[in-house]
Specification:
Elements: H1 13-27, E1 35-36, H2 39-46, H3 50-62, E2 66-68, E3 74-76, H4 80-83, H5 88-105, H6 110-121
Antiparallel strand pairs: 1-3, 2-3
Helix pairs in contact: 1-3, 2-3
Keywords: DNA-binding, Transcription, Transcription regulation
Pfam family, one: GntR
Domain HTH gntR-type: 11-79
Length: 126
C-alpha cells in the first residue's frame, strides 16, 4: 500500500490518510489482520506530525477499520471492508441537515438552534 499526501490539497492531511487507508481496504490492497505501521513510523515515512497520524488512526479505530492491540501494534479490523463504506461524517451532516430543516419549518430561528445546539453539546439542557 502506498500513501500519497498532497499538502496543497484543501482536504486536511488526516482526512486524506483516512480516505486512502479505507480505499486500500476496499481495493484489497490491505486485508483484515494486516499490520499497519506505528503512528510514529507512518508520520516519519510521510513527513507528517505524529498528532495528525494519531487523529487519522483514532477515526479509523472509531469506524472499526483498524484495531489497536496495545503494544502489539495496529491491525486492519476483521470487518474493515464493510466498515470502510460507512462515513460517519456524512451521517452527521445528513442528520443535522434534517433536524435543522424540521426546526426551521417549526419556526425556530437560527439563533435559537445555535444556542440549543451549544447547550446540548455542553450538557446544559433545561
Amino acid at each position: 500500500m502506498e500513501i500519497t499526501i498532497d499538502i496543497e490539497d484543501t482536504v486536511p492531511l488526516y482526512a486524506q490518510l483516512v480516505t486512502q487507508i479505507k480505499q486500500a481496504v476496499m481495493d484489497g490492497a490491505i486485508a483484515p489482520g494486516d499490520p499497519l505501521p506505528s503512528i510514529r513510523q507512518l508520520a516519519n515515512d510521510l513527513e507528517m506530525n505524529n498528532k495528525t497520524v494519531a487523529k487519522a488512526y483514532q477515526l479509523l479505530e472509531r469506524d472499526s477499520v483498524i484495531q489497536t492491540k496495545g503494544y502489539r501494534g495496529t491491525y486492519i479490523h476483521p470487518d474493515a471492508r464493510a466498515n470502510s463504506m460507512v462515513d460517519v461524517n456524512d451521517l452527521v451532516v445528513a442528520t443535522l441537515e434534517k433536524a435543522i430543516t424540521t426546526l426551521r419549518n417549526a419556526g425556530a430561528t437560527d439563533s435559537e438552534i445555535r444556542i440549543a445546539f451549544a447547550n446540548i453539546l455542553n450538557n446544559k439542557t433545561a
